[in-house]
TrEMBL record:
This is Asparagine synthase-related protein. Residues 404-419 have a biased composition (Low complexity). InterPro entries: Asn_synthase (IPR001962), Ntn_hydrolases_N (IPR029055), Rossmann-like_a/b/a_fold (IPR014729). Coiled coil: none annotated. Residues 383-431 are annotated as: Disordered. Residues 215-287 form the Asparagine synthetase domain. It comes from Streptomyces aureoversilis. Pfam families: Asn_synthase.
């Protein structure tokens, strides 16, 4: 009889406390529901593997070693699989470790060393903090804090402006594609999973890139096709539509969740519904809250979630959990994989693409919004036509109610330039993972961020990321070409955007009293820190035009204030989920 496959991908996080010095210490290890943090009385090695109910325990490599995992694992976690991973870590065979499938992240704890690892495509936030004699690591950075107030005030100020910053200077994230080796008195970091450009023939055409991208996306979604019913966050845009098309083509039993709004200026449900109808996929709209529940002081945040949609994600997570979904895909990384970071005549003329396509792109540039002198200047290697912002990207957020920064940052837009190369999830996304998805046993999966597609992106010429055509700038042309044979033209030809910011701007206009009390009142942490100026805030709140202009920063600041309040409540005595283990 064939052995029953071990459930895969249900490892929701891990935690460890490992002392160094003296002889090998006792191992205290438990597999627990997400968020349960046992409190032991012994001084040895304390290890917690968070997992969904019914998930098999990770096999022990030996009596003196433990392997902990977090995230999606492709394939059964058998003793042989564990032995292969452990041997590759201990013996430094990094190339073999990089070839193992899945989004591997976790920790190997041995007598005298600990290996923390995270693959290049890993969506997991794994953090550590160490001294000469003690290492602590966790997927939740608050496990590594000694008390409240360990954040960087300047990072908090930047969070109020909507920047994606990590606020804990004493906690170190494990970077994607790295192994961190910790032993007594020494920490070393090694790259093991590089994202190398995909090998493709010279002068590969745009259509050939589109075909390869589809094959790689199918490969990325296949592990979810046999997992039972899978969900997807379907926005109505091209990225999530591409993931849904691949899931359907792979035979997955999938249902689409759409964050719906009653605001006609931001309603994308028509696009999302058209995608589902074309593919024959169930469509579930989740009507979002724009009222009193939009900001909730009871929220507990391990990190500032300084975006505008936390309450809407919470409502979606509640519905997904009620439906029994444990795997939820989304279209994150589409902009980074297929979209423009820089574009100009230099990339068109020197890019590795056929001469016929170079001619087409040059003619398109002549009909574009850019003036001829500027197009000619972009023939220089360091010049980009997007230096004033790529299509659909704004500059810095106005924040007229914040006090001036000593560093002179306030009021200045973010510096132009290409984003960092595939840094993994932002701290805000990791925060949502810890507070919304994992507590409900939901794994958020990112097929567009697979290593294969990242390698394709590293190979793709800049000239294929934007298509100037008849005066229009068409973003992500490779993705559109990939979808052109799989969707009606109304889907893949979609150009421009609705006004997605309309609902939260209306919330700000209708709830200025809530914002005044939360971020401008005498109890506000941001006022006491000298970041919010109550007089400036009152001036902004009194004028509807300035309210709309500052709406994003006002909500980012409100969410940052809620983080500070939850941080102030954070003590060992009130940490959620502690149980006593002897």
């Amino acid at each position: 009889m064939e052995p029953v496959p071990v459930p895969v991908g249900d490892y929701l996080g891990c935690y460890g406390r490992v002392p160094f010095g003296g002889g090998p210490s006792r191992i205290s290890y438990v597999t627990a529901p997400f968020g349960q943090r046992p409190s032991w009385s012994d001084p040895g090695r304390h290890l917690v593997q968070w997992a969904a109910p019914g998930t098999a325990r990770v096999p022990f490599p030996s009596e003196r070693e433990r392997l902990l995992l977090t995230g999606v694992v492709h394939g059964p976690v058998t003793p042989a699989w564990v032995g292969r991973l452990v041997s590759a870590l201990k013996e430094g065979r990094h190339a073999e470790l990089a070839r193992m499938p899945g989004e591997l992240a976790g920790a190997l704890v041995t007598d005298h060393r600990v290996f923390l690892f995270r693959s290049a495509a890993g969506e997991e936030g794994l953090h550590y903090r160490c001294s000469a004699d003690l290492l602590r690591f966790s997927t939740d950075p608050t496990d590594l804090l000694d008390g409240p107030g360990e954040f960087d005030p300047e990072a908090v100020r930047r969070s109020c402006r909507g920047e994606a910053v990590f606020v804990y200077p004493g906690v170190t994230p494990v970077p994607p594609g790295r192994i961190v080796t910790v032993e007594r008195g020494a920490v070393t970091t090694a790259a093991y999973d590089p994202v190398t450009p995909l090998e493709l023939p010279a002068r590969t055409t745009m259509a050939e890139y589109a075909g390869t991208a589809w094959d790689l996306l199918l490969e990325a979604v296949r592990p979810y096709a046999g997992r039972g019913r899978t969900g997807i966050l379907l926005s109505g845009g091209l990225d999530s539509a591409a993931v849904l098309a691949a899931l359907a083509a792979a035979g997955a039993d999938v249902v689409a969740y759409h964050r719906a709004t009653r605001d006609p200026l931001a309603d994308e449900s028509g696009y999302a519904r058209a995608v589902c109808e074309h593919l024959g996929v169930p469509f579930v709209p989740v009507v979002t809250d724009h009222g009193a529940g939009y900001l909730d002081e009871r929220w507990e945040f391990p990190h500032p979630y300084n975006h505008t949609a936390y309450r809407w994600l919470e409502q979606t997570a509640e519905r997904v959990a009620r439906d029994g979904i444990t795997f939820l895909a989304w279209g994150r990384e589409g902009d980074r994989i297929f979209g423009p970071a820089r574009y100009g005549l230099h990339g068109v003329l020197t890019g590795d693409l056929p001469a016929r396509e170079k001619a087409v792109l040059c003619r398109g540039l002549l009909t574009s919004r850019w003036e001829l002198p500027r197009i000619l200047r972009s023939a220089a290697p360091g010049s980009s036509l997007l230096d004033d912002g790529a299509p659909g990207r704004g500059g810095g957020r106005p924040a007229d109610f914040l006090t001036p920064s000593a560093a002179g940052r306030d009021g200045a837009p973010a510096a132009a330039g290409a984003p960092p190369e595939h840094p993994g999830p932002t701290p805000q996304e990791h925060c949502a993972n810890l507070t919304l998805w994992r507590p409900r046993g939901i794994q958020l999966c990112n097929p567009l961020g697979s290593k294969g597609l990242r390698r394709l992106s590293a190979r793709m010429p800049d000239a294929y990321r934007l298509l100037p055509h008849q005066g229009r700038l068409i973003t992500k042309p490779v993705l559109r070409l990939m979808l052109s044979s799989r969707f009606p033209a109304a889907v893949w030809r979609r150009h421009g955007r609705l006004w997605p910011g309309s609902p939260h701007k209306d919330y700000v206009l209708g709830h200025r009293h809530v914002l005044a009390a939360l971020i401008g009142g005498p109890e506000a942490h941001l006022v006491r820190m000298g970041i919010v100026d109550p007089l400036r805030l009152a001036g902004v709140l009194a004028e509807p035009a300035r309210l709309r202009l500052n709406a994003d920063a006002l909500l980012s600041t409100a969410m940052t204030e809620l983080f500070l309040r939850s941080d102030a409540r954070r003590t060992p005595a009130n940490r959620r989920g502690f149980t006593r283990c002897l």
